[in-house]
Design brief:
By secondary structure, the chain is mainly alpha-helical. The chain has one domain: Orthogonal Bundle (DNA polymerase, domain 1). It contains four helices and no strands. Helix 1 crosses helix 4.
């Protein structure tokens, strides 16, 4: 019911054609494991945060990511990846690589 009439975007919908989304690129650059257990949810939470707050503080990033459990325990890399995209977007340079 809550999604009725709304737009649902999955991780597959984040990239722009042949280019990875800036968050997907940051995950690679920061060595966040690609285990598949939680990463889609982590990236989607980060994308939602940045869509609503392009320049979040570290505390806002941590709060937005709360509730996403990572069994690899790479929270510091995830936070660093989100911070790097937030910094790049606020400076106007958020290009991704080809998928």
């Amino acid at each position: 019911e809550m999604a009725a009439g709304g737009q649902v975007v999955t991780i597959e919908g984040l990239n722009d054609g042949d280019r990875l989304h800036a968050l997907q690129e940051a995950w690679i650059e920061h060595g966040v494991p690609q285990c598949g257990y939680c990463q889609s949810g982590q990236i989607m939470s980060a994308a939602h945060l940045l869509a609503n707050n392009p320049a979040p503080s570290r505390e806002e990033i941590v709060a937005a990511m709360t509730g996403n459990l990572c069994r690899c325990g790479t929270y510091s890399r995830i936070i660093a990846a989100v911070e790097s995209v937030a910094g790049a977007e606020s400076s106007g340079s958020s290009q991704g690589r080809e998928a």
